[in-house]
Amino acid sequence: xxxxxxxxxxxxxxxxxxxxxxxxxxxxxxxxxxxxxxxxxxxxxxxxxxxxxxxxxxxxxxxxxxxxxxxxxxxxxxxxxxxxxxxxxxxxxxxxxxxxxxxxxxxxxxxxxxxxxxxxxxxxxxxxxxxxxxxxxxxxxxxxxxxxxxxxxxxxxxxxxxxxxxxxxxxxxxxxxxxxxxxxxxxxxxxxxxxxxxxxxxxxxxxxxxxxxxxxxxxxxxxxxxxxxxxxxxxxxxxxxxxxxxxxxxxxxxxxxxxxxxxxxxxxxxxxxxxxxxxxxxxxxxxxxxxxxxxxxx
Length: 298
Hints:
Layout: E1 2-7, H1 22-28, E2 41-45, E3 51-54, H2 60-65, E4 81-85, H3 91-94, E5 106-110, H4 112-115, E6 131-135, E7 141-142, E8 149-154, E9 178-184, E10 187-192, H5 200-206, E11 211-215, H6 223-226, H7 234-237, H8 248-251, E12 259-263, H9 277-284, E13 287-289, E14 295-297
Parallel strand pairs: 3-4, 4-5, 5-6, 10-11, 11-12, 12-13
Antiparallel strand pairs: 1-2, 1-14, 2-3, 7-8, 8-9, 9-10
């Protein structure tokens, strides 16, 4: 099983187009310690020929160009991309579907709640005669015919920003925010790019995985507030920080996982600097910081 990190950044990527936070300033200046990142997405394959995307980033066209495994081959019209599995309805996980509108057959997988956001409106450009939508229930295992099986499970999260209202609840485990447990030839990969809280059930679910790709949006819960970038904490955005007593490093410290990799990293996160002390702390705790083009073979 091959897993390629197409995009490792959070919404807006890195550097963010309108941002001059300390990290973005260094990235704009070309400091080699700050790798540029497109928005969060993975590609997974069991044979190297047919690929399933995990979320469809707004940067998908750029990501395809940067990834030879996803280039068209053979026929005049062809793509190795057989499908896309979307984990929530966030803009930075859905809008890349519009890049795939050029009369190419593929299947979109996701919860009924998330697939509903891909129906009608601008998503009408996806020809229903070619683009199949397959709803996946919580706990259901699906076989996309690509050499691996995928089980969807709920994680603490929240509704997408554009659907928030006065009744917003953060941390509920519903089909609005899911993670994926992917199995092939005895190997397991867990993909969870958006999680609001670490629970005992989540730790138990992750335990034994050969690789975990996990939400690394912020290092501390209040970093964006302290930097004057936002009034929202990580929790308010539906994300768990890396550090702290309730953070992901502490939460998964006893989980038996082969490779623990942070993805969906916000431009405010100090670990974007490759020689930052926070980066060293993650390494000591057994975590790696994902980057665009990173590949894991299991």
